[in-house]
């Protein structure tokens, strides 16, 4: 079709000249050739315009959809062929650059969203241009925050000033930002100017809430241990110095002082042993056995260990356990848990009170309750009584003895055996500890 259009166009352009020449040859009027020439030229111009329009439309099509191959057997005009080649190269280059930019954008987005730390990027005025998924999770929001100011995202004047310093002065800043609300967070933020010729800043956010909590636990632990150690050490040192200064010859006071030194040294030894055991439990260094433990036997052994102390305060121990009930656990750990719970109950029960111990099977669990008629405690203390060195009444607890680690050790031992323990209490009525462990089928366990 293209070849046919070109042939017609060439013919029409030549016809006027031939017609004029023939008319002059026959000595016709020169004006007779004018209408034919003008009409033919006009037709040629129209066809030439249509051809040019066709080429323009073809060029636009090539820039949007790429070049097309010529029809079979057709021959392209040299100008059109050059245009096709140029447009094809331009189109291919555009596609290649577009794909590279798209891949770079996707890589950047995946990298930012894959970061564990939160990140935002601002322009030179401090307005947010980009954020990543980790930052939105830290701030508990789903909005992109693009176009906002730092002060509207986090109401912290120090952070706003740090962003402006990075944008205007090119200075780095490190600070901590506290987020209040239902889920408080402590964030460490590093603000830095963008590298190279880019104007703006970047801020990296790291959640240090757990780190700060652990630091507080460590500081509290050191302070508590220091305090607990100071009491027996001070007593031992004081009475030893008194004996050195002449009291050793006092037949009445010397034995009493030696007895106090011995008692305080035992307390010191218990504290050190409890600390070592708790450290092993928390570091999962203490290996517990998994074997059949007969609960009635363990309850009797623990009761025998506290019976003398209970008798001294006229406290009755009432024990009741279903025959043959057993659990899967470590025998020594189970007995230590029961002993700590019973010793605690006797310690905080006034003279003439009662301590009840019950063991039964419920829903595939062995449930042991240790209930006393002691002093009890307010509900606010129940969530913290298993913490190290936590005391409901610090003065009363120290007067009654103990290291302040017993219930914490109980909690870790029970957890290590896959069990659970909880406490209920009423002030001036008493406290109940409920322990649940995995119930064992005694015959099957023995066969195994």
Structure write-up:
It is a single chain. The chain is an alpha+beta fold and 448 residues long. It folds into four domains: 2-67 and 74-105; 114-207, Beta-Lactamase (2-Layer Sandwich); 212-282, Signal transduction histidine kinase, dimerisation/phosphotransfer (DHp) domain (Helix Hairpins); 291-447, 2-Layer Sandwich (Heat Shock Protein 90), CATH 3.30.565.10. Helices cover 54% and strands 18% of the residues. The protein contains 13 helices and twelve strands. It has helices spanning 2-25, 33-65, 78-113, 133-138, 150-153, 157-169, 209-244, 253-282, 295-312, 331-347, 394-399, 406-416, 442-447; strands at residues 118-122, 128-131, 173-179, 185-193, 201-207, 291-294, 316-321, 326-329, 354-362, 365-372, 420-426, 430-440. The strands form two sheets. Strands 6, 7, 8, 9, 10, 11 and 12 form a seven-stranded mixed sheet that branches. Strands 2-1-5-4-3 form a five-stranded antiparallel sheet, with helices on both faces. β3 (173-179) and β4 form a beta hairpin. It is elongated.
What features would you highlight for this structure?
448 residues; alpha+beta; Beta-Lactamase; Helix Hairpins; 4 domains; seven-stranded mixed beta sheet; five-stranded antiparallel beta sheet; 12 strands; elongated; disordered C terminus
Lay out the secondary structure:
Elements (H helix, E strand, L loop, with lengths): L1 H24 L7 H33 L12 H36 L4 E5 L5 E4 L1 H6 L11 H4 L3 H13 L3 E7 L5 E9 L7 E7 L1 H36 L8 H30 L8 E4 H18 L3 E6 L4 E4 L1 H17 L6 E9 L2 E8 L21 H6 L6 H11 L3 E7 L3 E11 L1 H6 L1
Parallel strand pairs: 7-9
Antiparallel strand pairs: 1-2, 1-5, 3-4, 4-5, 6-8, 8-12, 9-10, 10-12, 11-12
